[in-house]
Amino acid sequence: MTIPSHVIEMLKKVRGRFAAEPIAQRMLPSDAEFTTLRPQRNATQASVDKYWARLHDPASQADQDALADPLTMANPDQFSANIENFIGTVKVPVGIIGPLRISGLNANGDFHVPMATTEAALVASYARGAYAATKSGGITAALLYEGVIRTPAFVFDNLFNAGLFVEWVVREIDALKAAAEGTTRHGKLVSVEPIVDNNVVFLICRYTTGDAAGQNMVTIATNALCEDIAARCTVPMKAWYIEGNFSGDKKASFLGLVTGRGRKVSATVTLSGAVVEKTLGTSVQAMLDYAQVANLGSHLSGQLGAQAHFANGLAALYIATGQDAACVAESAIGITRMEARGDDLFCSVTLPNILVGSVGGGTSLPSQSAGLNILGLKGEGQASALAEVAAAVCLCGEISIVAAISAGHFTRAHENLARRK
């Protein structure tokens, strides 16, 4: 067996870096005034200045001016509920697409959609997809299901006690529901499903969360449920954990694909052959041919679902509207379908795990609130519509990228929009 030359070079660098001096000694703080940052939530001008004073880079004043700009510092306390150790805000470019016509169970009308991204060509692509969809009559969207989950884990000595615990939970479900719902005005515990693995029991606790994305809501509610179990359950328990890493929180998972962890939405549009040719610069058959190859690639690579790039649209929309951007990791799974309908092209997406809210989290911050206002989906009663818009946006992105690759335009578009400044 031959060891590749790059591996040998890497080993030489490691030896040269770490052999000369014990790493533990080298990593000891040398500054007598060295102190770690303690989490501080209440943002003030004084606290911001204190943190910037710790940064000794000569360019830090320019950096401070960029992040702690006058508009941000006019009221730094408005960010206190969303971040600790506040030093400023980042300005992400925001583009707009639309009008995107949607006929949904909850979202109805022509929407202008803000998208925050630093990736050139992204907004242009989604705008093209939105134009093609609207020219063909608009997108139909439907919220099919909702239920945010938290999955606490309980550890017992043996399988027998795990079984007794499940029996106890079934008997006490009404009391546990009351304990959980006692922590929230909006959350409702709709189901508790036990999953047993020998001496460990996971409880899939599923909630509706009103107009909030609900991550914190279900955590607090489930903690109350677990504390009630710990206080009253007669089955000997070794330990319990608020999350057993079963829910798929901020991770792509088969559970999220099959049952969802947020809001499940399907969105469809039938593109006329004329729109495909004139607007997208390709043909229905060319898009179908590429879609078949892309679907094969999804399966061979082990993708959870089969789609092109849901994450692009979701990340841009999430950032623009104050959603938890890390939830893109679990939201960006699902299925894209493209099928012939005579001379036209049926296009569909199903996203089982959209985690969005029109209240709570970052939705009340100035820029993000403005993004929701542009959509007309700020505040109570709008979360379901926002989820349908998110799915419709993803459909626009799927249409555009499949058209671009099938026509051989994908690389040229990125060269023109991204590389040629």
Automatic annotation (TrEMBL):
One of its GO terms (molecular function) is hydroxymethylglutaryl-CoA reductase (NADPH) activity. Belongs to the HMG-CoA reductase family. This is hydroxymethylglutaryl-CoA reductase (NADPH). It comes from Thioclava indica. Its EC number is 1.1.1.34. It holds the Pfam family HMG-CoA_red. It is an enzyme of class 1 (oxidoreductase). Keywords: NADP, Oxidoreductase. It comes from the Bacteria. GO terms for biological process: coenzyme A metabolic process; isoprenoid biosynthetic process.
